[in-house]
């Protein structure tokens, strides 16, 4: 049961002035799996795989870039588009970074009684993951949980009428792959910090460690225990020497 108080917030897109910019969609930006060469031409190029050489020389102190990329001047990289100020970009679908190794790192489940709040926050979470360079899936709709209650209207023993109550819990899911633990932690903390009232989250993460981590931890524990025993033994010897000297 989601016992979350709903925050009264008003959202408006009237302040966004949309110039003649390309409509960034999931399918137009995912050039790596496009089956139509005509669709891929003139679109944003996907991010190169991990380990590939990068010629990027973007200075964080100079961001955002002063010039907005124009699709009429030819294709450009997603990195350049993300580093530029594009009014109204947040209302479009986020760019989906391609998976490099398809190693799952986290799944986030969203729950809410209101579909409007759920769609808004999942859209926000997807854009946050895109900004951090985390390959994620599309927002997956899970089956809606429906609960029904039938209670008597009257507190008397002989009930003459009943009243039905219904509650629907809407669910969404986002999967993440091939991201560092620190990046995923930053993404999760950002979502918690800017959580939306009326939307609950359940986060499942997978952390991977190199081989031999158990042996190294055991050796560390043994060293710590042996060090404490040596300190206790030395302290006892000092106490004995002090007592005998008196």
Fold-level CATH name of the domain at 93-205: Alpha-Beta Plaits
- SSE pattern: HHHEHEEHEH
Give the % helix.
25-40%
- The CATH architecture name of the domain at 93-205 reads 2-Layer Sandwich
Major β-sheet strand ordering: 2-3-1-4
Please name the fourth-level CATH homologous superfamily of the domain at 93-205.
Answer: Ribosomal protein S10
Please give the alpha-carbon distance between the first and last residues: 70 Å
The CATH class designation of the domain at 93-205 is Alpha Beta
Short description, anyone?
The chain has helices at about 25-30, 35-40, 80, 115-130, 180-195, 215-245; strands at about 105-110, 140-150, 160-175, 200-205.
Structure description:
The chain is α+β, with helices and mostly antiparallel strands and 246 residues long. Among the domains are: 33 residues, no CATH class; 113 residues, Alpha-Beta Plaits (2-Layer Sandwich). Helix content is 31%, strand content 18%. Strands 2-3-1-4 form a 4-stranded antiparallel β-sheet. It is flat and about 85 Å long.
Task: Lay out the secondary structure.
Blueprint: H1 26-29, H2 37-40, H3 78-82, E1 104-112, H4 115-131, E2 140-152, E3 162-177, H5 181-193, E4 199-205, H6 213-245
Antiparallel strand pairs: 1-3, 1-4, 2-3
Features of this protein?
single chain, 246 residues, alpha+beta, Alpha-Beta Plaits, 4-stranded antiparallel beta sheet, 6 helices, disordered N terminus
